Amino acid sequence: MAPNSLNQWQEYVKSLTIEGRAFINGEYVSAQSGKTFACINPANSEEIAQVAECDEADAELAVSAAKQCFDQGTWRNLAPKKRKQVLLRLAELMLEHRTELAALETLDMGKPISESYNVDVPSAAETVKWHAEAIDKIYDEVAPTEANVLATITREPIGVVAAITPWNFPLAIASWKIAPALAAGNSVVLKPSEKSSLTAIRLAQLASEAGLPDGALNVVPGYGHTVGKTLALHMQVDCLAFTGSTRIARQLMIYAGESNMKRVWLEAGGKNPNIVFADCADLDKAARSAASGCFYNQGEVCVAATRLLVERSIHDEFVQKVREASQHFRPGDPLDPDTNMGALVDKQHQGSVLEYINKGQQGGAKLTLGGNAALDTDKGAFVEPTIFTGVDNSMPIAREEIFGPVMSVIPFDDEQHAIAIANDSDYGLGAALWTNSLSRAHKLSRELRAGSVWINNYNDGDMTVPFGGFKQSGNGRDKSLHALEKYTELKTTWIELD
Ligand code: NAD
Q1: Are 113 and 334 in contact (CB under 8 A)?
Q2: pTM over 0.70
Q3: What are phi and psi of 228, to 5 degrees?
Q4: 273-463 under CATH 2.60.40.10, yes or no
Q5: What pLDDT shows up at residue 28?
Q6: Where in the chain is the domain with CATH 3.40.309.10?
Q7: Counting atoms of ligand 1 from 1, which one is nearest the CA of 403?
Q8: CA 309/CA 316 separation, integer angstroms
Q9: What does each C-alpha distance from 85 to 33, 77, 134, 249 come to in angstroms?
Q10: What is the pLDDT of residue 1?
């Protein structure tokens, strides 16, 4: 049974043996250089583990193992139903190790244990299971040619996929990449964020235990500018699947152009508008959703509802409701099952978020809630839920991704004004509309330049629906069968029958 109190979780984590080595060609290995870096718990600044600091040499080994596995066909040529069985076993193992994976995630990046345990780990296992179940139900095509020709259109794995992932949902986002990539028959080299490598390292070993052949999944922890860059420039990496900031996403496109034109799939940042009209039928629900949409996961969410656009006639009343709903989010010890807001990923990021809050005040926005570091300010990276009103969409707090618990409230006058503000952003990841008018909902959802639009909810989703962005929020889609498009090449085979 999983621990169910702070005390029990504290005792449990003391009993954990934490693996920090890379996983290459079916086994744990230290970095070639022997170097490691400290993995720090952001809730108390204590060291959790030493993690292998992989560099160019380790990336070479991992790519070579992945390529060998691909070329030999040990994974790619396995019948889809057999690949399915291995991945289904992996999903089972993830759930069998749910307590351990949840504890690693929380220790590593500060998110509340209730979320790691109830959301992140089960949803990552579901991702693996969903793609496993899909892969032997997808058929190829026969083109409608003349009778003396047979032209088939088939999907084939691309080859070696390098997956480079961020720290905010380490296991869940790694699963969004590796599950469809592996299901389609590719070999994968996963480089987790240097700020949260532990669950990826553990996942590789579970995959091996599930029956994945050596070299099919390798994990190389380390820094982006060394091991990440080597993977992105590597001539034998055929596809880069990235989630992270727009700044690094742009850089990866350059690396692909400078090397072998590898396929590049990017899931990047967001500055998402949450638009509330006066005709919204349930303002209390909208207010609760505005608060959770912005403060869930400490605001470290690409699709966080960071720009709250409110029709002017209900502005003051609605802001008051959002303030009240936000009281629900109180920073606390991430290992306490009652905590719903943990620590930010590290002290450096806490400093960056506080700097934005300072900028917001200097720029003339009105601090309406929070605005400070919380709890143990020396050792923990906690920040209060923070709301600014009187924000103009040209201010840095409305334009730049803060990636912390900071909401900017912007009033609007009518539909056109709302859409103009919403679309006035470099990003286009998510957007929401709250209205009781069906025609307004339909009409405006088409006007919003975003990959996901929610009507009368915020950030609902499911494995069956694709997720990704317009504009500088990226390209390609994670989740759903569309994710498989990223990890397969389309081949036509033309056969003369005469
Ligand atoms: P980041 O861009 O700093 O790092 C992401 C990954 O890229 C890390 O593994 C990092 O080591 C690596 N990296 C850094 N420099 C590199 C280089 N030169 N070459 C190769 N790899 C390099 O992002 P982050 O701070 O880890 O994560 C937060 C960002 O992720 C936010 O912008 C957030 O919006 C975005 N995000 C997007 C989605 C989405 O689905 N669109 C989901 C979650 C997070």
Answers
A1: yes
A2: yes
A3: -65, -45
A4: no
A5: 98
A6: 273-463
A7: 31
A8: 12
A9: 37, 14, 12, 34
A10: 81
Distance 296 CA to ligand 1 centre (A): 19
- Going from the Cα of 210 to the center of ligand 1, the distance in angstroms, rounded, reads 29
Which residues pair with residue 273 across a beta bridge? 307
**227-230-232-234 Cα dihedral, nearest 10 degrees:** -140
**Nearest partner of 334 among 3, 1, 10, judged by Cα:** 10
How many CA atoms within 13 Å lie on the side-chain side of 76? 22
Q: How big is the CA angle at 463 (ends 84 and 482), to the nearest 5 degrees? A: 80
pLDDT digits (tens, 9 = 90+) for 279-302: 999 999 999 999 999 999 999 999
> Would you tell me which CATH number, out of the four given (3.90.226.10, 3.30.950.10, 3.40.605.10, 3.90.1150.10), belongs to the domain 6-268?
3.40.605.10
474 lines ligand 1 (CB under 6 A): yes
Residue 376 has pLDDT above 90, yes or no: no
For residues 106 and 116, the answer to whether their CB atoms sit within 8 Å is: yes
Locate the DSSP E strands across 277-334: 307-311
Specify the domain boundaries for CATH 3.40.605.10 within the chain.
Answer: 6-268
Q: What DSSP element (H or E) covers 497?
A: none
Per-residue pLDDT averaged across 118-134, rounded? 98
110 CA → ligand 1 middle, Å = 17
Question: Whose C-alpha lies nearest to ligand 1, atom 4?
Answer: 244
Beta bridge partners of 242: 164, 266
239 catalytic per annotation = no
Q: How far, in whole angstroms, is CA 94 from its chain's centroid?
A: 18
The mean pLDDT of the chain is 97
Determine the residue type at 117: Y
CB 400 within 8 A of CB 356: yes
Bridge partner residues of 387 (DSSP) = 369, 407
Count of Cβ atoms closer than 10 Å to residue 260 Cβ: 13
Measured from the CB, is residue 270 less than 6 Å from ligand 1? yes
Q: Which two tokens stand for residue 261?
A: 């034109």
- Is the CB of residue 112 below 6 angstroms from any atom belonging to ligand 1? no
Say whether 39 is catalytic.
no
Residue 173 C-alpha from the chain's centroid: 4
Over 80: is that where the pLDDT of 79 sits? yes
Please report, rounded to a whole number, the percentage of residues in the chain having pLDDT higher than 90.
99
Average pLDDT, integer, range 173-180: 98
Closest CA to 306 of 224, 376, 401: 401
Q: Which tokens belong to 427?
A: 């990003």
Q: What does the buried/exposed string (b/e) look like for 294-330 if buried means 16 or more CB atoms within 10 Å of the residue's CB?
A: bbbbbbbbbbbbbbbbbbeebbeebbebbbebbeebe
Half-sphere exposure of 337 (CA within 13 A, CB side): 11
